[in-house]
Amino acid sequence: MDSLRLSQSLPSWLSLTQFRPAYKRLILPISLIALVASGVTREVTVNTLSDAFWAVSSYVAFTLAIYHYVSGFINKENRIANLYRTSRDHQVFFAALLGALPGCGGAIIVTTQFVSGRVGFGAIVAVLTSTMGDAAFLLLASKPDVGLAIVALGVFVGALSGWIVNAIHSDDFLRPEVSALAERFGCGKHETSGIEQKAINLQGAFWKWLLVPATVIAALGSFQVDINQLLQLPEMTIEWIGAVLIIVSMLLWSLTKEIKDYESTVAEDTKQVSSHPIQKAAQDTNFVTAWVILAFMAFELITFFGHIDLATTFSGWGVWMPLMGLAVGLLPGCGPQILVTSLYISGAAPLSAQLANAISNDGDALFPAIALAPKAALVATIYSAIPAFIVGYGYYFLFEI
Questions:
Q1: pLDDT tens-digit map of 263-298
Q2: Mean pLDDT, range 323-333, rounded to an integer
Q3: What DSSP state is assigned to residue 367?
Q4: pTM confidence score
Q5: Structural domain range at position 117
Q6: Would you say residue 17 lies in a domain?
Q7: Based on the structure, what is the number of domains in the chain?
């Protein structure tokens, strides 16, 4: 009440809100610029950012562009979602397939249809168990063979979990007593300011022109081709280009959305359904890239300043690593899951931790699930942790000790 009286007593041109920092995401690109400007951290920062751009962001953008182009030709609501209404077993299987689709779309379809009474509780468990959210894009782009295997494993474990739940619970178990689908929680509805919309448009233009050349350079780098030597460029040129480009992309990303709460921090940006596939790919790519940078820079700076080999350090945790991956997976949002996947890609986390995280994590799908059916979301998340524990520790004891 005191703050309210104070704000009311202030002149019209002066208010408390004007002192609140806007676009807190700017902390990331500003920190990166400071690290590049410092002579102490310049080399490690440029090399890390270059690797993040050419070896991760470029492949993620390419993978996402293909995904959004293909999804534009496939109406999931009509072609797939309708199939799982024919029987309880079909519901579970197709829910697991929808969950395996990277991103939030498939899981949101199943969640809203559970609320409306069209699918049962087993379908919710199946979709939340099989989904990886945006972490799937990162894994498929960086390690496609492992990514495809984990996606397939997610479908199998998700379907099996859903069928077991169907044998225990009725379809109406924990269904909320509401009939509306609450479409406001789906992707694509978000009021943007003028600055945010301009940044979103520039983000799309950025990747529209860079997608092909960046993918070509990334592919050449994957085959151990020295790009600087191939193009007769001075040493470290391509590394500096990658570092500059990724900082520019983070500057654009930082202005596309304000951080207001936990969800707006860890969840992907909302996208207009009518947006161009490249525009959607750009928004998702920069979100994934931001969390990859956090993981990569933390890894490299801890190693650089502390002279600590995190891969060796985490290997000492041994039996606790799958549990760590599982625990992070219980957190809503894609951001924490991307951190775990980044640690796996960099070699700091074992595959058992990645497997436990992939099965336990629900990505951004947990937010609409909590909003529409909180009790069902909580119990389904707990149920998804059980197969995550079994698979993570099963792989650990079979192959990692």
A1: 777 776 777 766 788 888 898 889 888 988 988 898
A2: 90
A3: H
A4: 0.76
A5: 73-185
A6: no
A7: 1
